[in-house]
Amino acid sequence: MNLKAITIRRTRQADLIDAFTLVMNTANHLRRKRGMSTTRIKKLKQPPSLLVHMLKTDPEGSFVAVDKTGKLVGFSMALIREEEWYLAFLFVDPTLQSKGLGQKLLGKAMRYGKKNGCKRWALVTFSYNPQAIAVYSKMGMPPQRPLLTMERKRDDDKSFKKLRSPIKLTVTKITEEKYINRLTSLDRRARQLARPEEHFFWLADENYDTLIFHDGKKLVGYAVVNSRGMIAPVVASEPKYLVSLLAHAVEWGVAQGHKFQIMFVQGEQLEVIRMLTAAGFHIDEATLLMASEQVSDPKLYIPATLAHF
Ligand SMILES: CC(C)(COP(=O)(O)OP(=O)(O)OC[C@H]1O[C@@H](n2cnc3c(N)ncnc32)[C@H](O)[C@@H]1OP(=O)(O)O)[C@@H](O)C(=O)NCCC(=O)NCCS
C-alpha cells in the first residue's frame, strides 16, 4: 500500500482499543519472526486505563495513522513530564513497515516535545528489533541500559517461594492524595523528575495499591503493586533500602493472591536479580532503555511499566 493513502491525525479516546490491539498484534508479529513465544490477546471491551490516563495527560502527543477503509495502521504516543519527553508507544502494522510511516509518526510525536521545550528524550524498545534501535539512535536516543522483564507464575495448589527482606520495614497502603508531595520528592532523586500525574492515577485506580515504607519513623520509599501482578515502580530514598522495599512489595502482592508477578529490572541491579531468580522469577525478555541521557538512578529505582518507565 502507498503511504499517500494513509492519513495521520491526533488520537481520540475512541481509537484506544484499536491502538492497543495494534500494539499487541505488532509485538506478537515481531516475536513470532524471532521465534519467541507470543502473548495471548484478549478482546477488549474498554481501553486499558493506563492508555486513557496517558491520552488525558498528553492529548497533543499521540497520533494514529489510518488507511482508506478507516483501519488503524499506526500509533504513536508521547508523554511530557517536566523537561522529559518519553515515547510510550510507536507501532506500525507489519504490512506497512519499512515505508517511512514509523519515522513520520515519531517525527510528529517529537515535534510535541520540541514545541514544549523538552531537553531529555527517552523510551524503551525491544532489544531484538534492530530496526527500532536504528530509528531511535538516529534521532539522538542511543541504547543506554538493558532492562530485564522478570516474571513468575504459580499453579493453584502451589505457593510462591518467600522473599526475605534484609531490613524489616513497616508497610502502609495509602489512598490519600496528601502523600503526593512526599512521593514526588522520592521520584526526583530516583527517577530524576516529578510526576504527580502518575500518582493521582495510581491512587484513583482500584487496580493499583500504592504502598509506603518506613524504617522506624523514617519514610524510606514507595512501591506500586497492581492486582494483575505488576510490581512497578519501586522507589527508594537510599540504596540500602531498594532490595528490602522490593521484597516487601512482592510479598504484599502474594498476600493479595497474585498467581503471576512481573517487574522490570535494570541491568546493573545485581542484588535484585539474584534475589528474584532465587525466588523463582525467570527472565522473560530483555529490552533497552534508549535515551539522550540517563533518566534514573538504578541504585534507587525499579521502573514503572515500559510505557512510562
Ligand atoms: C519500529 C517501527 C515503529 C518502525 O517503523 P517503520 O515504518 O517500519 O520504519 P521506517 O520505514 O519509518 O524507518 C525505518 C528506518 O530504519 C532503518 N533501518 C532498518 N533496519 C536497520 C538496521 N538494522 N540498521 C540501521 N538502520 C536500519 C531503515 O533504513 C529506515 O531508515 P531510512 O528511512 O533512513 O532508510 C516499526 O517497524 C514497528 O512497529 N516495529 C515493530 C514494533 C516495534 O519494534 N516498535 C517499537 C517499540 S518502542
Q: Return the CATH architecture of the largest domain.
A: 3-Layer(aba) Sandwich
**Biggest sheet, spatial arrangement of strands:** 1-2-3-4-5-12-6-11
Task: Give the cofactors and ligands.
Answer: coenzyme A
Radius of gyration (CA) equals 19 Å
Q: How many β-strand runs? A: 13
Total of DSSP H or I helical runs spanning 4+ residues: 8
Helix content: 25-40%
Largest sheet: 8 strands, mixed
Low-confidence stretches: none
Q: Termini distance? A: 34 Å
Name some characteristics of this structure.
2 domains; alpha+beta; 8 helices; Aminopeptidase; binds coenzyme A; 309 residues; eight-stranded mixed β-sheet; 30% helix; five-stranded antiparallel β-sheet
Characterization of this structure:
- This protein is of the alpha+beta class and 309 residues long.
- Helix content is 30%, strand content 30%.
- The chain has two domains: 3-118, Gcn5-related N-acetyltransferase (GNAT) (Aminopeptidase), CATH 3.40.630.30; 150-302, Aminopeptidase (3-Layer(aba) Sandwich).
- The strands form two sheets. It has an eight-stranded mixed sheet, with helices on both faces.
- Coenzyme A binds at residues 26, 30, 90-92, 97-103, 123, 125-126, 129-132, 134-135.
Topology of helices and strands:
Elements: E1 7-10, H1 16-33, H2 49-57, E2 62-66, E3 72-81, E4 84-92, H3 101-115, E5 120-126, H4 130-138, E6 143-153, E7 170-174, H5 180-190, H6 196-204, E8 208-215, E9 218-226, E10 231-236, H7 242-255, E11 260-266, H8 270-278, E12 282-291, E13 301-302
Parallel strand pairs: 4-5
Antiparallel strand pairs: 1-2, 2-3, 3-4, 5-12, 6-11, 6-12, 7-8, 8-9, 9-10, 10-13
Bound molecules: coenzyme A.
Residues 26, 30, 90-92, 97-103, 123, 125-126, 129-132, 134-135 line the site of coenzyme A (COA).
